[in-house]
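Supplementary Data S3. Sequence and structure tokens for construct A.
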Amino acid sequence: MSISKEEKYKALLPIIQSLLEDETDEIAQMANLSAILQQEFGFWWTGFYRVMDRQLVLGPFQGPIACTRIAHGKGVCGTAWAAAHTIIVPDVEQFPGHIACSSESRSEIVVPVWRNNEIVAVLDIDSRELNTFDAIDEKYLEQIVSFLYPEEQDIWFAAGCFWGAQKFFKLVKGVIFTEVGFVNGNTENPTYKEVYTDTTGHAECVHVRYLPKVVSLAELTQLYFKIIDPLSLNQQGEDKGTRYRTGVYYKNDKDLSIIKTIFEQEERSLGTKLLVELLPLQCFYTAEEYHQDYLDKNPNGYCHLSSSIFEWVKQRQ
């Protein structure tokens, strides 16, 4: 007995979600998503265009050779990106400015892919038949692409020298992005040399982006206390200065109560007040490229954290 298109989508949702949830590489996710949609529905072309350098650049796809780059607002893909909503085209020949990557494409649907309130890609699906796509496709494809970037959150940790802190948090399952930089100072776009003088008010910091469904903010904060001395003012290890002060900085007020609970637990455990800032994020400036992933680039580079803490966090996954 054949099933309806909607029933097929419903059956696919948990399969797709399971397929994507343990993988953090977006190219791998897009490749598998293109494959499973193409396999299950037999579309003519299924794939992604990623937003890069203010244009759409061809990403993972299933089907014949396609256009490599599409300008903002051009063709169905560029128009969906510019309009910031899904576009269904019953007959591509009737679409103004249609870009004919393949003469065999007759109808099309393009779904924007959102990440942190910004379109970062579009899912493009073409059919050899007219009027293939409708509101059912729109509803379920929008839900499916939302699996690519499930709810993400950001937090900022100052933990002394930012090289070791970045390496530590990169090893935590559920952390999908890290970068080092300078936080909550009083100068704009400071250089490392300027921050090093302790005259800018900035602290070395690691920006952590994570998936709450995999690792919670409470857990990340608990891990943070594994790599700092919370009773040391403006010093971690041998690194001294206000740039090495410790602190947790948040953007969302709802995060404050979660972080504060962990702070209170630490204070009860130590029996004294912590010398760790807990403040809203006022500003964060990314450090120079040579500081990013420094210990990956320089495995024997300086780090005030012991190698055992990195092994510990690896083993706990």
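Construct B, processed identically:
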Amino acid sequence: MHARADAEQRATTLMRMLMQNAAPSRAARSSDRNGSGPVETVRPPHDFQAAFFQRMGLAQQFRALFELLPDTDFFAKDTEGRFVAIGAGMVRRIGAQREEELLGVHDSTIHPPFVARAIREDDLQVMRTRQPIVDRVEALYARTHAKDWFVTTKLPILDENGEVIGVMGFVRPYHGGSGGGEDDARLRRVVAHIHEHYSGRLVIADLAQIAHLSERQLNRRFQETFRMSPQEFIVRTRIQAASDDLLETDKPVAEIALEHGFYDQSAFTRQFRQHTGETPLVFRRLRRRTRDV
């Protein structure tokens, strides 16, 4: 846990260095009394740091270091929610070839409506309160891994006058709960079981037994980590997995519904619309069109 915390702290520090503009530096040199030539003046630590970053210019050299952080994808957006920077890993996960394809794009172009709305609400909260969101667990849409869960950390971006101009952060795969210790291991066992058996019948009592928790305790752990109940998590996992088939295959909607744990096409369509705001057919048509652009 200490290693992960250290890695997150390094990533957060690097993100601040990447996005914040260096303040104008004070005069770096002056002539000595004998006029023998320039000598280095003594500056406060922050001026020394700002002068160095100013020499780096706008090349965003720290981005090369971000790309080497394992399982960490960075991003930055303006106040309107348009991407201004996206790490290579996130570009690949979304299904694009180059960062340029996604610059100026909103989350609504990438994610289903219910996911995009949740992301935007978090972005607005960070910009409004100027407080970071740390380790928010969420299901993020990926073109080939739609049912994947990720941990997101976000901070506000400030200009040289201290005004909020956007939000920045990084995303990592979710590997367990946020509390650490045995509770994480118990939750991971349940999540792994759901991911493996989501297409079949899942009983909450059985999941609680896998975790060696009561049903009430299991529900509380899911609410704390995922902001939803175990049953909602199961439905969300099924819908995310079905999203893959809608995009990557030409299977009829009724067949996809049965293969992903829904009683019939009607039940699938009802749940899909409730969670995404779209019917499966509309989702398939619009997302394929966006992907092919």
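The beta strands are 29-31, 38-40, 73-78, 83-86, 133-139, 149-158, 164-173. The chain has two domains: 2-36+44-173, 181-292.
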